[in-house]
Amino acid sequence: MSSPWALGTLASEVTRSTRSILHADMDAFFASVEQRDDPSLRGKPVIVGGTGSRGVVAAASYEARKFGVHSAMPTWQARKLCPQGVYLHGNMPKYAAVSRQIRGVFEEFTDLIEPLALDEAFLDITHSAHLFEGPEALARRLKARVREETDLAVSVGLGPNKLLAKIACGLGKPDGLYQITEEEATALLAKMPIRKLWGIGPKAEERLLALGIETLGALRDAPVETVRKVFGRHAEAIQARAMGHDERPVETERAPKSIGEESTFPGPVAQRLKLVEAIVEHSETVASRARRAGYLGQTVTLKIKFEKKRSGKRTAAFEIFEGLTRQKRLDRPTDDAMTIRKAAESLLQSIELESPVRLLGVTLSALRRAETEAEKPQLSLFPVATEEPPGRPSLGAVMDQVHARFGANALRRAVDQLDKMTASDREKVGELLPEGDESTPKSPKVPRPGRR
What we know:
Elements: E1 21-26, H1 29-37, E2 46-49, E3 57-60, H2 62-65, H3 75-81, E4 86-88, H4 92-106, E5 113-117, E6 120-124, H5 135-150, E7 154-159, H6 162-172, E8 177-179, H7 182-190, H8 202-210, H9 216-221, H10 224-231, H11 235-242, E9 258-269, H12 272-293, E10 295-308, E11 320-334, H13 337-349, E12 357-369, H14 395-406, H15 423-428
Parallel strand pairs: 2-4, 7-8
Antiparallel strand pairs: 1-6, 1-7, 2-3, 5-6, 9-12, 10-11, 10-12
Helix pairs in contact: 4-5, 10-11, 12-13
């Protein structure tokens, strides 16, 4: 059956300037879900995220934002700003279920949906807006349907491209509907601070301000040579965005550029053995995700962040992190955990650990589709110990089947289970308990094999 949104103008007849793009963003999503499910929390400042001293805020209700609390803020800082707030550890499986409900509502209006996160998505409504008497009428109906299905508020922005739709959504928050037309874009953006432009982070903002560039209008009019000092070869593209130009399509299926896994240790780690254990855990996860997605990767990256103590107040003693990354290109693409692990371990050996480690991550990139079994890595003439014997199923594939049937902890490599598991890690394996709860289940230790 063909999609109902295939009616109307053919895609080949649609120019970029005639597009209608909608950006939908749930308001304070995690916190709003908690307030919805517990009426006693309504009207109170609710902060969801890591509840320990080293935790990070994942979401803050609008009541909490009045005190200056926002997402990505260290929890200790949030508690200082809002000591009367209600701090919750969160429930990712519940949020994911609500996100699926919201996605179902979006599909009532178009099948061209690009999810950005659990609570945010772009919708291309170019071909379906006329069925709802125009983009604005469609947006109002979408907001009403989300409220009907979830009892939650969604802010919506409309524009001729993704950039303007996202900016419009931000201008309409909370629970708003804002539209930026192509004719309005140049004058509206010219007065906005540079940080409003999607893609400009704190470091780029600092460098632009040092050059005297404070607004998007100033960025647009600056000599391209000046902008190159900050953005290099991307300078022209950034200036085009500052004028409201954005040619990117809504991508319903975006091919991943990389598959990675990282976690922050509860405390500083100085022992290499603990870091190797983390590499083993992350390599297994990355390989499993690559197999499920049907990808092989040829570049392994190890990411490490070191802890640097800050002098002064105790609460801020661990806020400075210095990071580095190392990469290794493999002889051939792989989705094998042992191969990824060996590459990451060799990268670790090349790093001098001058300070304790707070974060470690493993990433597989240079991805391509594993189209057929023939494209799977072949045995070499002189096989190494990590390769499977001919005719035997891949150990990784067998582990995937066991995990799918019996759970993520049913079968593990012969190494000690890490005690570095963070809240997000526990959520992934269904062990979510309040941070610091002594009743958190621990998997039994697995004996180490003897050294060879």
